[in-house]
Specification:
Helix content: over 70%
Mean pLDDT: 82
Order of helices and strands: HHHHHHHHHHHHHHHHHEHHEH
CATH superfamily: Hydantoin permease
Shape: globular
Structural class: mainly alpha
Distance between the termini: 15 Å
Strand content: under 5%
Number of helices: 20
Radius of gyration: 21 Å
Low-confidence stretches: 1-8, 427-438
CATH architecture: Orthogonal Bundle
CATH class: Mainly Alpha
Number of strands: 2
């Protein structure tokens, strides 16, 4: 009973989510919507609207949101079936023990970076409204608050969504009504330098590329496969599309991408508090995914089971420091990088679990425990990941994120057909099989 309690507090970081811990779909969907209902998404929409016509930005947001939603469903279904977080699940979905450690670290670094972006934006809004304490100080204070909440675990992440999502939607409606008076805003030209359509779609994909890949961190709490689809439509596709379009309208109406300044001048302290609440909502999941990746890394590399809460604190301190250092200033470059690095991961996981199935039987046959063995490492997967990510970026046609996803999927299926994936496996200890904490 004590061990079960410890596993619950650590959010089943190294074990399957039991049936009793599964949640209603709408609770998970609201939390997922909270991840996309963020100031960074409005900033993305404003960036697109500043360089594109309204309808051009509309097309970019629609295509990008649909593609991200499809990937989120494909990967999220695996998490629902197996009840495992992304980093741990990747051991049996193409990456092996060593590969999962690398992926866990990459996810941890990326989610910590996203935490820094959101924390920096929240700090800037608070500084703009308060006018006394500089933004880096606000960022550090905000980061500390979110870190404490995330360290308490997934059971603490639902309530901010119920408050933040409707409040932020109301704030955006207020901002639009107060600042948009030109009825011709939908038909006007872009107020700034032009952005190409393919670049715009890549930015949209990059805005939630990490979120799509780490979908199992969320969907492992679902009770049914249809829940994965419903939460993806509401939480991912609708969130990306609706919130992004608000940013487009603001950019066209005011000719600026300074969303933080517009919200601060329009909403005052009330607007700032709403923005902070929304940033808290997405940032608690950023830290949860980062901590899950780090727990898997230490378990895979050092065979040490660290506390998820403790590594959450470490990740939170690191992300807050990045925010105070101004990581948000490199927002667009960060999105472009993520749009290329992470789609191949989803392509490999989907190909292994749904098509090649080298290790799917180990996952299915050992439920509700974790499999006794996993491949030590899969060299072919590492090569496919690198080739797909690089080729997706340099191909002179198509979308880089979509290209890398499709290429990784095709190469992995080919590697499976040529029997390049089966290699020496690593035997798990009794402690790892039973999921007991050290």
């Amino acid at each position: 009973m004590v061990e079960a309690s410890r596993a619950g507090r650590d959010d089943q970081a190294l074990s399957r989510v039991p049936c009793g811990a599964r949640q209603r779909w709408w609770s998970v969907a609201v939390q997922r919507f909270g991840q996309t209902t963020a100031l960074s998404q409005v900033l993305l929409g404003a960036t697109l609207g500043f360089g594109m016509s309204f309808w051009g930005a509309f097309v970019a947001l629609t295509v990008g949101a649909v593609l991200v939603g499809v990937v989120a469903v494909a990967v999220g279904t695996i998490g629902w079936r197996e009840g495992l977080p992304t980093a741990l699940l990747s051991r049996w979905t193409g990456f092996g023990h060593a590969g999962s450690a690398v992926l866990g670290m990459v996810v941890a670094l990326s989610c910590t970076g996203w935490f820094g972006v959101q924390t920096g934006l929240a700090g800037a809004v608070l500084a703009n409204v308060a006018g006394v304490v500089p933004a880096p100080v606000w960022a550090l204070v905000f980061g500390a608050v979110v870190t404490v909440i995330a360290a308490c675990g997934a059971r603490w992440t639902a309530w901010p969504s119920y408050v933040a999502v409707p409040a932020f939607l109301g704030l955006l409606a207020w901002v639009v009504l107060a600042n948009v008076n030109d009825v011709n805003v939908l038909g006007g030209p872009a107020p700034g330098p032009s952005i190409e359509m393919l670049t715009a779609i890549t930015l949209v994909i990059g805005s939630f590329a990490v979120g799509a890949v780490v979908s199992p961190d969320v969907t492992r709490f679902h009770r049914d496969g249809s829940d994965v689809v419903k939460q993806a439509v509401l939480g991912v596709t609708a969130g990306e599309w609706v919130i992004g379009l608000v940013g487009v309208v603001i950019a066209h109406a005011l000719g600026t991408t300074d969303v933080m300044g517009v919200i601060g001048s329009t909403g005052g302290w009330a607007g700032a508090l709403i923005v902070v609440t929304v940033a808290l909502k997405i940032n608690d999941w950023n830290l949860l995914s980062a901590s899950l990746g780090l727990v898997n890394f230490f378990d895979a590399v050092l065979s040490v089971r660290v506390s998820r809460a403790q590594v959450t604190v470490v990740a939170g301190c690191a992300g807050s420091s990045l925010a105070a250092a101004g990581v948000a200033a490199h927002f667009s470059h960060f999105l472009v990088l993520l749009g290329v690095v992470f789609p191949p991961v989803a392509g490999i996981m989907v190909a292994e679990y749904h098509v090649v199935r080298c290790w799917r039987n180990e996952l299915v046959s050992t439920r509700p425990l974790v499999p006794r063995s996993a491949p030590s490492w899969v060299p072919a997967t590492v090569g496919i990941w690198l080739v797909a990510a690089t080729a997706g970026e340099v191909m002179p046609f198509g979308l880089s994120g979509l290209n890398s996803f499709v290429l990784a999927f095709a190469l992995y299926v080919a590697a499976g057909r040529w029997d390049l994936l089966r290699i020496r496996t690593r035997r798990a200890t009794r402690r790892e099989v039973t999921g007991k904490a050290a």
